[in-house]
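Researcher: I'd like a candidate sequence for this fold, 253 residues long. If you have to choose between options at a position, lean toward the conservative one.
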């Protein structure tokens, strides 16, 4: 990839922010984020440069926003006549998405759902890992709706960093499916929140991957339901508390 600094006028920025010049796997522009960015620019000025790309692969486009669409939108609210941008040329789609993921990971402006959405929409170009992203995307959007995206990543992914970089691999998909279904039951039937679900996950992972002991998920689900009906979790105020409770009720004679 080659890069340089390019000066863009206000009209050029307006054109750049049209739908055709925004990458399909990047986030939609959110007005509240633009407003917050504008307030920051008023106080501190422009502290980083947007990245504009020239795509030299079959989807040929001369200028697209690779990073900084909210900053460019905030710039238009100022009276500045131009803005400096980093201009990069990309030979394939793989280089673009890796830049997008890396830039947003460093700036911590993407959340787990953004990464899942981006790598799913990246599609079959990332063929080695696409089926994993498609599977997890479907579980999150269609099957286990309501479970936090971050929890599902923790349940399924070998490494969260690899997930963010487009290299999602599963620990043990069958095991993860069963664990995710129990979490879904706790979330939907008993309205349990993050620390409860993570407590169960930590217990299950310790038993399966550290202690090398199998889990009877039918037994686990039945005993959880009975314990919750008896309000045995009333003193659970943290992930560790619920992890300990699961251990007690699962091993109860």
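Model: Candidate sequence:
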């Amino acid at each position: 990839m080659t890069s340089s600094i390019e000066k863009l006028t206000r009209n050029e920025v307006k054109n750049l922010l049209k739908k055709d010049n925004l990458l399909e796997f990047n986030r939609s522009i959110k007005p509240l984020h633009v407003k917050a960015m504008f307030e920051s620019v008023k106080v501190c000025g422009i502290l980083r440069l947007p990245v504009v790309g020239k795509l030299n692969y079959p989807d040929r486009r001369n200028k697209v926003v690779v990073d900084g669409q909210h900053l460019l939108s905030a710039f238009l609210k100022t009276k500045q006549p131009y803005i400096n941008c980093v201009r990069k040329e990309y030979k394939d789609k793989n280089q673009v998405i890796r830049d997008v993921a890396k830039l947003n990971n460093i700036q911590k402006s993407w959340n787990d759902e953004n990464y899942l959405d981006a790598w799913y929409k990246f599609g079959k170009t990332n063929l080695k890992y696409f089926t994993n992203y498609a599977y997890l995307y479907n579980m999150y959007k269609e099957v286990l709706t309501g479970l936090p995206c971050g929890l599902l990543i923790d349940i399924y992914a070998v490494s969260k960093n690899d997930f963010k970089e487009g290299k999602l691999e599963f620990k043990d998909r069958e095991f993860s499916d069963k664990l995710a279904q129990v979490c879904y039951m706790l979330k939907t039937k008993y309205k349990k929140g993050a620390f409860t679900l993570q407590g169960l996950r930590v217990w299950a992972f310790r038993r399966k991957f550290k202690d090398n002991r199998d889990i009877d998920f039918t037994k686990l689900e039945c005993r959880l339901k009975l314990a919750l009906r008896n309000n045995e979790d009333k003193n659970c105020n943290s992930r560790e508390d619920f992890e300990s409770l699961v251990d007690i009720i699962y091993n109860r004679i």
